[in-house]
Amino acid sequence: MELFLSQILNGLAIGQVYALIALGFSLVFGVANIINFAQGALFMLGAFIAYSAIAWFELPLVAAAAVSVVIVAILGLLLERIALRPLIGAPYIAPFLSTLAISTIIDQSAEIIWSPESQPFPAALSNTTFFIGNAYITLTDLVIFAFGAAATVALTLFISFTWTGRALRATAQDSAAAAQLGIRTEAMRQIAFGLAGALGALSGILVALYFQSVFPQMGIPFGLKGFAAALLGGLASIPGAVVGGLLLGIGETLASAYVGDSYRDAIAFTLLLLMLLVKPNGLLGSKRLDALGGAGAAAGAMPTTSLLASSSSQQTAIRAVYLPAWGFLVVGIAFATVPLVLTSTYVLQALIYGFIFALLAVSTSLVSGSVGILSIGHAAFFGVGAYAVGILARPYGLSADATLLVAIALTALVAVVAAIPLLRLTGHTAALGTLAIGQIGFLVFLNWVSVTRGPMGILNIPHPVLEILGGARFATTAQKYWLVLGFVVIGLVIAERYVSSPIGRVWRAIREDRLAAQASGLPVKRYILLAFAISGALAGLAGGLFAYVQQVVSPESFTVETSILVLTMAVLGGLGNFTGAAVSGFALAILPEFLRGFAEWRMIIYGLLLLAALRVRPQGLLGAR
Amino acid sequence: MAVQGIVVENVSRVFGGLKAVDGVSLTLARGETVAIVGPNGAGKSTLVQLISGVDRADSGSIHVDGVRTDRLSSDRIARLGVGRSFQTSRVFPALTVWDSVLVGVQPGLIERPSGRLIDPVTESLGALLGLGFWRRRVKAQEAAAEAALKLFGDRLWPRRDQPALSLSYANRRRLEIARLLAAEPRYLLLDEPSAGMNPTETEELTHLILDLRRTHPQTGILVIEHKLSMVRRIADRVVVLNQGRVLIEDKPDHALDHPEVVEAYLGKPRTGASFQDAHHG
Ligand SMILES: Nc1ncnc2c1ncn2[C@@H]1O[C@H](COP(=O)(O)OP(=O)(O)O)[C@@H](O)[C@H]1O
Ligand SMILES: [Mg+2]
């Protein structure tokens, strides 16, 4: 019982922090109607700037915190100015992807500036513990809770009683009407982003105090939890965000106390998925969520649920350019001749990764583009395939036919199960659901040590042997090249056949207008699940091949970075356009091989590419389909 | 023998205190054309939402050919043969006109005669391998789609490769109706099909519906319409809705000239010449 109460107190402290992150989401969502994916990155920066102020300039904690909050608030303003303002009137998906790109750039820059390792955050407070009856709470927890609560109260007072606060609320309720009343809604957007930055920084510092460490990858998991808290509370309400944060904090702390600490995050993200499953509009309910991306235009002059549409209901009419299914076969045959003239293992190896990522990008494009459920979690499916091969190949001595078949079937199954909570979602919420799936996948690979061997990974995966080819063994790089190319071409041909068939047409209809598709008699959920099954199968195949090529499988290949990378490939190629996805997947995968020495700049370059593409050509290189 | 037709019994739908549909009962028999008229906000569209399963009734029951449908999902209801259009046409903007209509026939492609759906694996194999049985089904559906588009003369067929978003307002309405007709529904629910159409286009639409009545004598048509001159020409019966309730149900001339109806529409008793079209919203 004491443990239980102590856990609740502990949960209230961390929950208060989640509430602050959630408030950052809610403010921006309320005023600008977008989900700011970069909220987590601002949070992380807040923690690191405070860390540097203390560690490098020896400022006291309070001064360091103040500096950090001011700097990150300004960065929040800049974010709105650089990444979002130019995109007004662009497709619904553009602002979200834009903040995603910025987030990638910030995260990677942080790894360059502060190194990817975690740094100890100086414990500013003594380890005093207070007892309330038999339950205890540490001074740190108390301070975190007090600061978080004070910030929440201050924000509430600001919103309720100042002129600016009222103007913010008016803009959130009806931007057009507010503008009519002479409120400068653009300024309000900026203020919301500035405040979100300040809240992000403050919460980052509190988390750093709580865990006494900072690490550049902390933005995404905490950002996602903040989003979960905001969603729990209905996304557009301040009390909702606070209640959501506290509930999440308590739930997670209890779960980690009774289930195991390494499952802390996995539990939080599973809760998020369950929430999405039963109450997609949040506990307190918010119809406005429906209007996000997805159904945003559903009430417009030309109803659509497509993320590629924009508020002006106009989709930039770029004719998509793409190969028919046999075109992939022809290109594949051409590529098959390469090892005959080129013997450089280095080049062949690079091309092999190009093929694998082409397939993975197509798999992502299928759900993200054709069906319109943006996936930021495909690395998990890729990983399931890779682990299936890694686990089965040596101990059971299975041939590649068998292991790949298991990889394909298992990943398809996992993808279908993962898709169930997403069935009722559209737009940005669905995207964040997929992010949660990706995170859960990574955490399982990392923590299910008895099966995956955890961070160690699975080593010494044998060379593949194909029984259907009479036991042929693929040992040399050239042989593996042909093996991978063969399977990838088969995968691409099947994918293209699907998307050009009546089934692909139904997928696009679901993307364009889910309501009308269902009212036309189509079993929409079934078709979405089928799409996830196919996409999962393709990702599983890519993962299985990847395992054979690497001969090693370990969790760091399947991080959210990989998911963002393949999504970037799919967007750059033109969502739903498999030729585009394959080309950009191939190109972006081999690019870094020729940019050796710039390895750490890779994600930054991709982020910049994505930002540029969203401004210049949001429909992608070859046109969305 | 189950009762044929759509039977709506005592159906209500409340939106936060507002009774949008309040104890409405009505029937639509096969081969019959019923018009629903009434001022804006009377609950006409909501009624169509309830019958088509896009929205759920709070109470009451709806049967389609004897099958209770008020708890079924909208796709099931559509596959029972109920096709509906939306007040703001919904046409899958980025799909071409041809693809949009093919979406309408897709349910027929995957439905067995028993009403059960073909499983996704068979559907996938059929679609990917282009098997014979599948190709025959596809051909038949494509023929139905082509015929539906050609019902609109040269309005849609020459534009079949254009994306729906490039169509004019009136053409989007036509496309939506074509998509419904391609599926050969037993019942057709049209929500203000002539909204946004000029007099010539309205005349064309009137002829289309009259032709439909001739060529598809077994189809029941429920049409929400403000243009009363059109209603008088196409409808067998008129149901007047006001504030969620059925005000009157009668032959067009009786219903539309009823003093209460005129009052509901114009807010005062009719004086002088008989009015033709009510223009609301
Ligand atoms: N989804 C909804 N939520 C809240 N109110 C609604 C909704 N749909 C319709 N209403 C209200 O129900 C009433 C009837 O609307 P509707 O059926 O569209 O009328 P009509 O089609 O006859 O003009 C109106 O007052 C409308 O505002
Ligand atoms: Mg209406």
Automatic annotation (TrEMBL), chain A:
Keyword Coiled coil: no
InterPro entries, A to Z: ABC_transp_permease, BCAA_transport_permease, LivM-like
Keywords: Amino-acid transport, Cell membrane, Membrane, Transmembrane, Transmembrane helix, Transport
This protein's record includes keyword Ribosomal protein: no
Subcellular locations according to the entry: Cell membrane
Transmembrane stretches, start-end: 12-34, 41-57, 63-80, 92-115, 135-159, 191-215, 227-250, 321-342, 348-367, 379-396, 402-423, 430-449, 481-499, 527-549, 564-591, 603-622
Pfam families noted in UniProt: BPD_transp_2
Membrane topology annotation: Multi-pass membrane protein
Signal peptide range in chain numbering: none
Family from the record: Belongs to the binding-protein-dependent transport system permease family. LivHM subfamily.
Name of this chain's protein: ABC transporter permease
Lineage per the UniProt record: Bacteria, Pseudomonadati, Pseudomonadota, Alphaproteobacteria, Hyphomicrobiales
From TrEMBL, chain B:
InterPro entries reported for this sequence: AAA+_ATPase (IPR003593), ABC_AA/LPS_Transport (IPR051120), ABC_transporter-like_ATP-bd (IPR003439), P-loop_NTPase (IPR027417)
Matching PANTHER family: AMINO ACID ABC TRANSPORTER ATP-BINDING PROTEIN, CONSERVED COMPONENT OF ABC TRANSPORTER FOR NATURAL AMINO ACIDS-RELATED
Residue ranges of every copy of the ABC transporter domain listed in the record: 6-268
PROSITE patterns recorded: ABC_TRANSPORTER_2
Name the record gives this protein: ABC transporter ATP-binding protein
Span of the signal peptide: none
Coiled-coil boundaries: none
Superkingdom in the source lineage: Bacteria
Gene Ontology terms for molecular function: ATP binding
Keywords: ATP-binding, Nucleotide-binding, Transport
